[in-house]
TrEMBL record:
Gene3D superfamilies: 2.60.120.200
Position of the signal peptide: 1-28
Name of a matching Pfam family: GH43_C2
Domain called Beta-xylosidase C-terminal Concanavalin A-like: residue spans: 544-699
Domain Bacterial repeat: 394-463, 472-534, 753-821
Taxonomic lineage of the native organism: Bacteria, Bacillati, Chloroflexota, Ardenticatenia, Candidatus Promineifilales
Protein name, entry field: Fibronectin type III domain-containing protein
Coiled-coil portions: none
Length: 837
């Protein structure tokens, strides 16, 4: 019986653990299942229904066609309210699946001051009557949102009532809902074979019509949306033809594109329909401002840009184009997905390269459907095609050219979806690249792209003069080229390394090279004139520290411990920042939770070089450099492990909103050295394994008034399945490159030195007497005056006049023992004899 009780207890525990794991799995599912399981967003950014302004952009290079709309008509007021339901009095949903949380019944009412509806004889619900400046564009527009969880499987009755205070009109809409279907993938619409929109998709907002095999806006307005797909779709590509006929006037401008990983609108306050839209994977679209600027944007979860807008926009209104957008989850659960967007003229070969790509935001939906978006634009959409991007592999077929060669990096038999590939052409002596063939065209060299299909590549070369490299210097410094040659092969790789004089920093490239990569690798596709610019650096700020002490210099550094569980220590040659396990100390939308030390820093040009002696070996261990204006505006430079390997990474925080600016730079291991250079608004980030040979990680611009800088350790995890790992960031030094400490750590490889000086005649015994000592070690010093001398006292790192003193080692110590001639006028001995001097 005893063993039976033990067995039953064990089974109970195992069932409880299983329930816990199942609960964890269910929690993961709630990210994609809106059946009342996802709490509505509460972050203020998520509750802002407005469209953020386009930051940047350039004047649109083609004529903008404006659709002013029909002239307003003032008809006589109807004798009684009248209800028009746009998509018929019998509507079908769910036959493919459910693309969002809501079923939408749209239409227009005239002559009414009140509007309401009931579902299946349930309670009466009040409806808003347009316009509302958002989803209800025109006078009388309405949008009934029915949660799919409230619908019966089969026929449902929606009774719409409109009143004017004296009379009432009603309209019955039958909603047939086919529950339990899962939208197939791959999937394609076919407006030609079946012009009924609801046969292929669900209208979310606005009035649409199918004609001539395309889906068209009837009346342009705010966020005219059509959705299709499953809320459980994760990784896929959507491709669709689109013709933008005209733009309609709006203070918010216009935009046309697609949303992926959509779950539906949510409430930001009062009103129906709800107007929250920022819970999404990504919105990729072409955007125009009311002033005529244009750019491509990718906006992530929260509605903000996740990459700088691309203002190299070269498509015309009235011309058919292909739009393609892909979403690919990270290899490891919990990471934000990668979004890639491209466009090209309809009928032409699809380019291999993407126009713009970005990494999404943490907390974004893990899956979701597709939305076609026409914001204040008159648009025609062709048939949309969606295909999954699972474990498919791709190949690159290189066609060997005459008079040259083609190099593919990395050189592999097969490639996975989204893998970054560089293809470079190099001519023989006297031959230049004339053009790419196969999947590419033009003469850009090299071609860098994320592979998403099989590639064929060739090249043609033509005879011509060899390219030359002309280097010059502005300021105090030098620049070297490797290899150094008079004439280069067309397409040859050359590494340029700027070497500033002491007290100067590299300020960036000009001429035929821009940015601040140090070193920079160029391709000699033509003759290039390049200048390396150097400026004087501020040697006073920040202040170098090699942590060559047994205690942190709290007059310089401030320890910051936001979560309250981190610690630090100094062992005499290193600073150790200890980050405990199981709690996230991430630096992202929740703020800066890292364990760190910071020092005041002037708002000047500077270069910081740090040496770390710790390794990031577990998923989301992090260490690096912080530069701050305040808690809402700062820069994060780091190395971290994402579970697949070590990555170099940088992010900027503007008003508390983060964006990755350098990401997905894979490293062979944890580099010991990190370097951050600031010249005005230009920032560059590089790394090294030996402190001599540096590799550029990237550069970017960011405007910030610097007040602090320092080093940090951090971690992140998603317990209980992926808890945050413990990490100790070990910092050897933090240097201002214009004023380094030489020699670093005083060359005390084994510990600290104790130097004892003597003034006068006497000796000092030291116990223990060793070449070096460790932090906290106790040393006893005893002064022994010579005959006729007395001990006056200690000076330096100890004081007092006791013959014996104890010293606790806290660094390199310098001590002086001072002896003075004896002042006695006689001495006594036995038998007593007095000697008079």
């Amino acid at each position: 019986m005893k063993y039976l009780r033990i067995l039953l207890f064990t089974l109970t525990v195992l069932m409880a653990l299983s329930a816990t794991l199942l609960s964890s799995s269910a929690q993961a599912i709630t990210q994609v299942d809106p059946a009342g399981l996802i709490p509505p967003p509460t972050d203020p950014e998520m509750l802002d229904p407005d469209k953020p302004p386009l930051l940047g952009g350039a004047p649109y290079p083609f004529p903008i066609i404006i659709d002013e709309g029909a002239a307003p008509v003032s008809p006589e007021a109807p004798a009684a309210p009248a209800i028009t339901v746009w998509y018929g009095n019998t509507q079908n949903f769910g036959q493919w699946g459910t693309p969002q949380e809501w079923i939408n019944i749209l239409g227009n009412v005239t002559g009414a001051t009140t509007l309401s509806y009931t579902l299946n004889n349930g309670p009466e619900q009040t409806l808003s009557i347009g316009p509302d400046g958002k989803r209800l564009q025109n006078a009388g527009d309405f949008n009934i949102e029915l949660a799919y969880t409230e619908l019966n499987d089969g026929a449902n009755t929606v009774l719409i009532k409109a009143g004017d205070g004296a009379t009432q009109a009603t309209q019955v809409v039958t909603v047939n809902y086919d529950a339990g279907n899962e939208w197939p993938l791959p999937y394609s619409t076919n407006w030609t074979s079946q012009p009924n929109i609801q046969a292929w998709a669900q209208v979310v907002d606005g009035q649409w019509a199918v004609s001539g095999g395309t889906l068209n806006t009837v009346t342009p307005g705010y966020d005219r949306l059509v959705t299709f797909g499953s809320m459980n779709w994760t990784d896929y590509e959507v491709e669709v033809p689109v013709t933008i006929h005209s733009l309609s006037p709006s203070s918010q401008g216009s935009g046309v594109g697609m949303i992926v990983r959509w779950l539906g609108h949510y409430s930001t306050g009062d009103g129906q329909p709800v107007d929250g839209w920022r819970r999404l994977g990504a919105l990729a679209w072409a955007r125009w401002t009311s002033s005529g600027n244009a750019a491509f944007e990718i906006r992530g979860n929260g509605g903000q840009d996740i990459i700088e807008p691309d203002d190299d926009i070269v498509f015309e209104l009235g011309v058919p184009y292909m739009f393609k957008l892909s979403v690919q989850a990270s290899t490891f659960s919990g990471n934000a997905a990668t979004y890639r967007f491209k466009y090209w003229p309809a009928g032409e070969t699809e380019p291999a390269a993407w126009n713009i790509s970005a990494t999404g935001n943490p907390g974004e939906p893990a899956s979701g459907s597709v939305v076609l978006v026409a914001h204040h634009a008159n648009v025609s959409w062709g048939n949309a095609t969606v295909r999954p991007i699972g474990n498919t592999t791709y190949s690159i077929n290189v066609q060997p050219p005459a008079n040259g060669s083609i190099t593919v990096t990395p050189d592999k038999e097969t490639y996975t979806y989204g893998e970054t590939v560089t293809i470079r052409a190099q001519g023989l002596n006297g031959y230049n690249l004339a053009g790419w063939t196969g999947s590419f065209s033009g003469v850009n060299n090299p071609i860098v792209f994320d592979i998403t299909k099989d590639i064929t590549v060739g090249a043609t070369f033509a005879a011509g003069p060899p390219p030359k490299l002309n280097l010059s210097v502005n300021g105090q410094g030098e620049v070297s080229a490797a290899p150094q040659k008079n004439n280069y092969l067309n397409g040859e790789l050359v590494t340029l390394t700027p070497e500033p004089a002491l007290g100067f920093i590299f300020a960036g490239w000009s001429g035929d090279l821009s940015g601040a990569d140090n070193p920079a690798v160029i391709v000699m596709s033509s003759t290039k004139n390049i200048t390396a610019n150097f400026i004087s650096a501020n040697a006073d700020s920040p202040i170098s520290d090699d942590f060559n002490a047994c205690a942190l210099d709290t007059g310089l550094w401030t320890f910051v411990n936001p979560v309250g569980d981190g610690t630090y220590s100094v062992n005499g040659t290193q600073l150790l920042l200890n980050v405990p396990a199981n709690v996230s100390h991430n630096i992202w939308t929740e703020g800066n939770r890292s364990v760190r030390v910071m020092q005041p820093t002037q708002n000047v040009d500077f270069e910081i070089v740090t040496k770390f002696e710790s390794f990031v070996t577990q998923r989301y261990q992090m260490q690096g450099i912080l530069v701050e204006q305040d808690s809402q505006n700062f820069l994060r430079f780091e190395v971290h492990n994402d579970g697949a390997g070590v990555k170099l990474y940088a992010a900027r925080f503007l008003g508390g909103s983060p964006r990755a600016v350098i990401a997905d730079v894979s490293l062979a291991g944890t580099p010991a050295y990190l370097r951050v250079t600031r010249v005005g608004t230009l920032w560059s980030f590089s790394y090294s394994n030996d402190g001599e040979t540096w590799v550029a990680g990237g550069s970017f611009t960011f405007s910030m008034t610097v007040t602090k800088s320092g080093v940090f350790g951090a971690n992140h995890g998603t317990p209980p399945l992926r808890p945050a790992p413990a990490h100790t960031a070990i910092v050897d030094y933090f240097f201002n490159s214009a004023a380094p400490i030489v020699p670093e750590d005083g060359n005390t490889l084994e510990g600290f030195s104790l130097t004892v000086n003597k003034v006068g005649q006497g000796t000092v015994t030291i116990s223990p007497d060793k070449p070096t000592y460790t932090c906290g070690e106790m040393v006893t010093l005893t002064a022994v005056p010579a005959e006729g001398w007395s001990f006056l006292g200690w000076t330096g790192d100890i004081g007092g006049a006791n013959l014996t003193q104890q010293l606790t080692v806290s660094g390199n110590h310098n001590i002086t023992a001072t002896f003075t001639p004896g002042d006695a006028q006689y001495r006594i001995s036995l038998p007593l004899v007095i000697y008079i001097k």
